[in-house]
Design goal:
The protein contains eight helices and nine strands. By secondary structure, the protein is of the alpha+beta class. The protein has a six-stranded antiparallel β-sheet, covered by helices on one side. Helix 3 runs antiparallel to helix 5.
Length: about 350
């Protein structure tokens, strides 16, 4: 697509932001409201009837969801491009970068990983309650902004629901096909078995582990990476703090029934609750209200690392606290037991 193209008589295209199997995303200016936005243009070449239905579903799905951890949809339409008529939709523009780009420089600080992980886990918990499984949780689909807010020092948003598994009963939910990015697939996805909310939790566990270590948990070729997770768990380096090892070990269990729910992961990363074992309900959809609690592990308690800013206080565990207290004379440093948070 040419720069300066005017889509829908309103959105002036500037530069491409990314491309995937379903379409391409561009930065654009909304000339009616004078703001920068992101425009996703779907591919139409040789699109099957199911792919076209998926395009419509992604637009309607994102427009129906409302959560701070998800990218908001502003508009949608159809435009006659030189190469043919295509569907598009307009999203809020997250102007910073993806987690994938942040990870290029090596391991990220524990505080940043906990920030990003908690927000993505909360977004996943929200979509899971709506019967949706993302199926492609990976660093490239996590947008990260250097802005403090919502109790976090970095803002993260989950994007790209193009291959999401739809609510039960939908005719668009594919089975027997490997969907997602190989290096972050759950064992059940790699084995072409039915997926559930627990599949997203596993993928997020691999993302957080790679962000902390700077290395892929299952390296090698695509085939080697997929085969390895069917027979072994990812290696958790001894250099990781015990709390990280506990959390990531649970998230990446090969048995989906032994993984925590996304909401439990979020609470643990915020340092506000115990890590509960996730149990898959009959329809494969997480229901936080109905979720049994089986053998909860000890609470990942937050620590008070300094009673006063700039002084060395006690490092003894304290009762869990809600993250994100604004800076005051007495500054609480939050976390979930990880030194330095």
């Amino acid at each position: 697509m040419e720069n300066s193209a005017l889509v829908g008589g309103r959105y002036r295209i500037h530069v491409p932001l990314g491309s995937g199997g379903m379409g391409s995303v561009y930065q654009a200016t909304d000339e009616k409201l004078g703001r920068e936005v992101a425009v996703k243009v779907f591919r139409q070449e040789h699109a099957s009837a199911e792919q076209q239905l998926r395009q419509e579903y992604e637009i309607r799905l994102l427009a129906s969801l409302n959560h701070p951890g998800l990218v908001s949809v502003h508009d949608a339409g159809t435009h006659a491009f030189p190469e043919g008529t295509r569907r598009y939709f307009v999203m809020e523009l997250v102007e910073d970068t993806t987690l994938e780009r942040r990870m290029v420089g090596g391991p990220l600080p524990s505080a940043e990983v906990a920030d990003v992980g908690a927000q993505v886990a909360e977004a996943l918990a929200y979509v899971h309650r709506h019967g949706i499984v993302h199926r492609d949780v990976k660093p490239a689909n996590i947008l990260v902004r250097d802005t403090e807010g919502l109790g976090f020092r970095w803002i993260a948003k989950l994007t790209d629901f193009g291959i999401a598994q739809l609510p039960a009963g939908s005719s668009l939910t594919s089975t027997g096909i490997v969907l997602g990015t190989a290096y972050y697939l759950s064992p059940e996805q790699a084995a072409r078995e039915p997926v559930s909310a627990a599949s997203d939790v596993y993928s997020l566990g691999l993302v957080l582990l790679e962000a902390l270590t700077g290395e892929s948990p299952f390296p090698g070729t695509m085939a080697e990476s997929l085969a390895a997770r069917l027979v072994s768990d990812p290696v958790l380096p001894a250099s990781l703090e015990p709390e990280w090892r506990l959390l990531l070990g649970r998230m990446t269990r090969r048995d989906p029934r032994e993984r925590p729910s996304a909401s439990s992961v979020a609470r643990s990363l915020r340092g506000t609750a115990e890590l509960d074992v996730h149990v898959i309900l009959p329809d494969g959809v997480e229901d936080a209200a109905a979720e049994p609690r089986l053998e909860p592990v000890p609470a990942l308690a937050a620590r008070v690392t300094g009673a006063t800013e700039g002084t060395g206080g006690s490092d003894a565990p304290a009762a869990p606290i809600v993250r994100g207290r604004h800076r005051q004379e007495r500054r609480w440093r939050w976390g979930f037991g990880i030194p330095g948070l």
